[in-house]
Specification:
The chain is an alpha+beta fold. It has helices at 2-28, 35-41, 140-143, 178-183, 207-214, 282-287, 290-323, 331-342, 344-359, 369-381, 385-391, and strands at 31-32, 45-50, 54-59, 72-77, 80-85, 98-102, 106-110, 120-125, 128-133, 156-159, 185-187, 191-194, 199-202, 222-225, 231-234, 237-240, 244-245. α7 (290-323) crosses α10 and α8 (331-342) crosses α10.
Length: 401
């Protein structure tokens, strides 16, 4: 009896576990809208409104960029051959949507909501593997059939022995040989279906065939869900952000990029700037340094005002002391303040007239100018006139000046 109870309890636990696990998976695959594409890719390119496809994204990349060929490589996962991009934005355009190449503006990306390991068409020729991006609006049944034609220059081929390398970009076959290889190739139709996401895709070359021609085993890479946009390869695990993306249901609730440019304003690839991402929040970057500048300006304006009364006379007094070292000249600088105090109403016009005369004095009398300059600051600093009068004789002859 106890054995039956234990078996029953164990079966109930297994049943409950199998029911709980899918609920957790669904909770991790939270649904998002196209707005996540518009927000996350804006720093790395330009959104434009295309008359045929709607909002399309033009990446800021170096000239010669080819989707699924530049700055990345293929790894084998449970989903098949998966493209790992070294671009920080590679989690989105290489696993959602489609690429197409404009003759003037270069490659552009059209968003879509289905996730796949790589939306490309595969071909196999004797000694080669090749792939090319699927264009927008092409169904899977057409893309993986013999009737779908992609321009020859958009195909990338490598020798079958080099496929699966992490530095695969060093082994690409020159595009001048694409025509010959394509004519001698067949379409790889390795279609799989992801029932959880309700998506069908092409998994690429057969793993056993790659191991046979490469001469070494293919080590599978595990895919781990990431909670934020991005992707990274760590310890043979690919952590990638791949949420369930919902298409807009109504026209009034349509997401859109914060900034949309006109197609005529987009520069050709040779004239674009690439490298650092564009700032996402420009107003904060512009206004952030302003508060320290505003608080520092009053301090700089007050410093010279406070120091002028004390510092400038001191400098003017220091100069005449060097010229007054001879014993015959001390009486003249001391006499100037006394006469100015005794004749204050009439002395100011005299000073204004005397200034031009001092400038016109010959070089022999220039040593007396510091003494007259000393008189002006002393008159400004004199507190009551009586104190200065006690230190000097009350009257001096008129010829002492």
């Amino acid at each position: 009896m106890e054995t039956r109870i234990k078996i029953t309890a164990l079966l109930l636990m297994l049943f409950a576990g199998s029911w709980i696990t899918p609920q957790k998976v669904c909770a991790q695959d939270a649904s998002v809208s196209f707005q996540v594409f518009y927000n996350e890719l804006s720093p790395y390119g330009t959104w434009v409104n295309n008359s045929q496809y709607g909002f399309v994204w033009v990446p800021d990349v170096a000239p010669g960029f080819i989707p699924y060929a530049t700055n990345g490589y293929w790894v084998f996962t449970d989903e098949g051959w998966t493209w790992v991009s070294n671009y920080p934005w590679g989690w989105a355009p290489f696993h959602y949507g489609r690429w197409y190449t404009d003759p003037y503006y270069g490659p552009m990306w059209v968003p879509d909501n289905e996730w796949g390991p790589g939306w490309v068409s595969w071909r196999r020729s004797e000694g080669y593997y090749g792939w090319a991006p699927i264009g927008p609006g092409i169904s899977i049944s057409i893309a993986y059939g013999n009737g779908y034609s992609i321009p020859d220059n958009q195909w990338t081929f490598v020798r079958d022995r080099d496929f699966g390398r992490r530095n695969i970009n060093n082994y690409y076959v020159d595009h001048s040989r694409n025509v010959t290889i394509i004519h001698n190739s067949t379409v790889i139709s390795n279609t799989r279906e992801n029932r959880v996401r309700n998506v069908s895709y092409n998994a690429g070359p057969d793993r056993n065939d790659v191991e046979k021609h490469g001469g070494k085993p293919v080590v599978p890479v595990a895919i781990r869900e990431s909670s934020k946009p991005g992707q990274s390869m760590n310890k043979n695990q690919l952590q990638i952000y791949r949420p369930q993306v919902q298409k807009p249901m109504t026209a009034g609730d349509k997401p859109a990029p914060a900034r949309v440019s006109q197609m005529k304003d987009v520069k050709p690839p040779s004239q674009r700037t690439y490298g650092k991402p564009k700032p996402v929040e420009t107003p904060q970057e512009v206004h952030h340094p302003l508060p320290p500048v505003k608080t520092g300006q009053p301090a700089k304006q007050q410093e010279p005002v406070r120091q002028q009364p004390a510092s400038q006379p001191a400098k003017q007094q220091a100069a005449p002391q060097k010229h007054q070292q001879p014993a015959s000249q001390p009486a003249k600088p001391q006499a100037a303040p006394q006469q100015q105090q005794h004749q204050q109403p009439a002395s100011q016009p005299t000073k204004q007239q005397a200034a031009p005369q001092q400038r016109q004095q010959p070089a022999q009398q220039q040593h007396q100018q510091p003494a007259k300059q000393q008189a002006a600051p002393q008159q400004r600093q004199a507190s009551p006139p009586q104190k200065q009068g006690e230190e000097r004789p009350p009257h001096l002859p008129a010829g002492s000046f």
